[in-house]
Amino acid sequence: MFLKKLTLAFSLCVCAIAVWQCDKGGDDNPNSEGPACNISNADLSYTKNIKRIIDSKCISCHGGNGPGPDDYRTYEGMVGHIKEGHFIEAVVIDKTMPESGITMTQAQRDSINCWLKAGYPK
User: Fold this and answer.
1) Which is nearest to 92 in space by CA: 82, 106, 76, 81?
2) Which range has highest mean pLDDT (27-41, 42-56, 66-80)?
3) SS3 for 72?
4) Residue 90 host element (H or E)
5) Burial of 119: CB neighbours in 10 Å, binned 0-12, 13-18, 19+
6) What pLDDT is attached to residue 22?
7) Which string of DSSP letters, residue by residue, matches 16-68?
8) Is the separation of the CB atoms in 113 and 42 below 8 Å?
């Protein structure tokens, strides 16, 4: 009887972990996380729209020699961090970034979210 209960408990733990991983979206597809794009006919690109937000809100800490660990001065510098899923989590979902008293409007967060959902075109 004890072995049946132990097997059942183990099975439930495995299922709970699997469901939690699905809810996270996984590291392979950060676009599955976060809210849907709420900007109709959004045609956003890094060069046209997102770079100016990043430059004004993120570079002071994430400029290669600031207190932040990543270098967002270039598109290529951002892509690796975006693929890890931390960027959408911190900027769009949890809204813990930017720090240091820098504010980001909801419209800017929405633009970043829609850009990420579109596959972060350059």
Assistant:
1) 106
2) 42-56
3) coil
4) none
5) exposed
6) 40
7) HHHHHHHHH--TT-GGGSSPPP-STT----IIIIIHHHHHHHTTTTSBSSSSS
8) no
